[in-house]
Amino acid sequence: MTRTVRGFEVAGIVQGVGFRPFVHRTATRLGLGGWAANVDGHVEGVVAGQMEAIEEFARRLRTEAPSLARVRQVRLHEAVDGQDAGTGFAVRLSTSAERAGQGPAREVPPDAATCAACLTELFDPADRRFRYPFINCTDCGPRATVIEELPYDRARTTMRRFPLCTLCAAEYGDPADRRFHAEPLACPVCGPRLAWQGMTGEQALREGVAVVAGGGIVAVKGLGGYQLVCDATDAAAVAELRRRKRRPVKPLAVMVSDLEAAAGLAWLGSTERAALTSAAGPVVLLRARKAAAHHVAPAVHPGIRHVGLFLPTTGLHHLLLHDLARPLVVTSGNLTDGPITIDDTEAQEQLAGVADGFLTHDRPIHARYDDSVVQVAGRHVLTVRRARGLAPAPLPLRIPAPVPLAGAGAQLKHTFTLATEDRAHLGPHTGDLAAVATYEAFKSSYAHLRDLTGIPPQVLAHDLHPGYLSTQWAQRQPLRRIAVQHHHAHVAAVAAEHGLHGPFTGVAYDGLGLGDDGTLWGGEILVGDLTEYRRVGRFATAPLPGGEAAVRHPWRMAIGHLYGTEPLGVPRPGAWLTSGFTARHEQRSVAGLRSMIEHRVNTPRASSAGRLFDTVASLIGLADSVSYEGEAAVRLEALAGGGRPEPLAHRIVRVEGLWVYDPTPTLVDLLVRLADGETAARCAAAFHTTLAEVTAGLVARAVAEGAPRTVCLGGGCFANRRLLTEVRGLLRTQGLRVLVGAQVPAGDGGISYGQAAVAAARLAKERG
């Protein structure tokens, strides 16, 4: 029978996921000869045998790949000169092609949580990796955090400084072993070691465990950066962590040993269980059980109905949970607003005043990756923060980018995106760029991922706001720039993730973003596609007394709404209604703010849904000042619970061709109900229902005038589960198709992806 020789190429996430061993096993079972190698970011090689078997080989590569792989394309082609199949099937050394920005982008595998097989070995006294903190195989372990260059081989990772011992080398070279070409392969003989004040290994671990058990705080070197760890059941330890880290109330993530422990703290359905046990290992925001107060200190998530839980992501975490036998607070190793620390010396300097000791090791972290955060709405897992385990896996672009490009992102919850052809690589969460260290971390992360993926941008997309550091950075680059309006980017991100070409109706609710008319937006109804949009609805504007100060102090925003909301024909609340609120604040301050509003001094106006949440939270006495962005809205959602009171009064009017929501009747009704003795919780619930009905009303009016019946919901306000659920339900009752982001964060963490999608569409349109 005729022996056929074919070349093959597999694109996607096919490095660092056990793909070459899988290719070897598949070819061998089909009786095929040839070879496979990593080349840049893909796998290619030669296969020889019967044509029917070769076609079956290609099919299996598409459909039976390892769980961590993401196969985008399998291509067979005529073997070129010099592509000799040889005898048998071999895995060859990787090569790096001359790219010069050409060819497919390299796709970087994310880190993966410890797999079941490694976990079994970790606690098996007979196994040579018994209690070894750095256990891993082709199905789990560090990837993006240790890769220095592609193609993905040990020599191009931070593991290159650890030569394999004889036993590990045998596993690495054995096609039948699950550690065949597992690049971070290690064992107690040849791999990284734990360290604690001159002690190593098991002794170092015991010392760290003892400090946590005694109520202390330990800085632990994790996969993508240092983490601060303490006993989640110890109220004093949690309070001290908050004091030292300068994080007064923002919820802290809790790591638990297994699903059973998680179920003791929070309600778990099948979707929640799947999210917790996924290879990404994210923090999952879950509804806490009332009895959970007996298991974790109340200060872990004060005043919030949801708790962020995750399972151990590395062997070290499993050992800590096993030895301590209690839930642990595991939070980013940084000070408030700074990036997670990855350098050992830097960690010792920055965290010296926070940690009582450092449980570290000698494997360098090459790339900074904080923990990912997701939440469940209905049966859908929605990404809140895309980082370790999720980034930088590529996302689709409905309209391919004609040239390599990048989205520079926003200011808060910053990310960047690199895009080429039909794929966009959304970089890991960086943080808020106002901090110098965070800004420097962004630039470093951008340069690393740009070089790693082989995407040299020719175009930069950025926000309209000139004050954003991401915008200023983009403007300093010697590249063509495309400005993208903030809220268009929000809804475009949703549309692009779902493969929409357009047109669509967009609902963009967030804190603040610069509109194309030079004013601040935040409660917007848009109609458009990925290239352009027009505004068809909005919230009424209100002043921000003191500008940025009104964001940090919601009571100022409440004064702005009470005394300066855009006049739309409804009288503002009278003194008898507002006296209770103003009496809570020093009268001269209130008078001063009213004077600022009257004379328009440092009182920029905004049509913001997020700032209206702040106002309501302050009026009901929930949050007059906040310590983190979005705190007032988070607390308001928690207070609302599942109550279903009648909605507050609301009104939509026509202003200069736009449908405008006037919040004055809503605020008047809110104050009347409070004066009549209605509880703050019922008022908070009524406000959520009101905003949902307002949104449905704005969209219905737009659709009646010809707006598309596909609606994209974007912006940070849609991280609010209750608002999202109610809005989605009401719009669906109107027969509308409703889309929300799943892999892309609804908030500003998704802005860069939206910018990239808009830039790609505009460039494609230019080229016809």
Automatic annotation (TrEMBL):
Q: Gene3D superfamilies, per this entry?
A: 3.30.110.120, 3.30.420.360, 3.30.420.40, 3.90.870.50
Q: Which gene encodes it?
A: hypF
Domain annotation Acylphosphatase-like: ranges: 5-93
Q: Give the catalytic activity.
A: an acyl phosphate + H2O = a carboxylate + phosphate + H(+); C-terminal L-cysteinyl-[HypE protein] + carbamoyl phosphate + ATP + H2O = C-terminal S-carboxamide-L-cysteinyl-[HypE protein] + AMP + phosphate + diphosphate + H(+)
- Active site per database record: R20, N38
Q: What class of enzyme is it?
A: ligase
Tell me which residues make up the YrdC-like domain.
202-389
Q: Which domain of life is it from?
A: Bacteria
The signal sequence is none
Enzyme Commission designation: 6.2.-.-
User: So what family is this one in?
Assistant: Belongs to the carbamoyltransferase HypF family.
Q: Does the keyword Zinc-finger apply?
A: yes
- Which InterPro entries does this entry report, sorted A to Z? Acylphosphatase-like_dom (IPR001792), Acylphosphatase-like_dom_sf (IPR036046), Acylphosphatase_CS (IPR017968), Carbamoyltrans_HypF-like (IPR051060), Carbamoyltransferase_HypF (IPR004421), DHBP_synth_RibB-like_a/b_dom (IPR017945), HypF_C (IPR041440), HypF_C_2 (IPR055128)
The identity of this protein, by name, is Carbamoyltransferase
Q: In which pathway does it act?
A: Protein modification; [NiFe] hydrogenase maturation
- Name the UniProt key words of this record, in alphabetical order: Hydrolase, Ligase, Metal-binding, Zinc, Zinc-finger
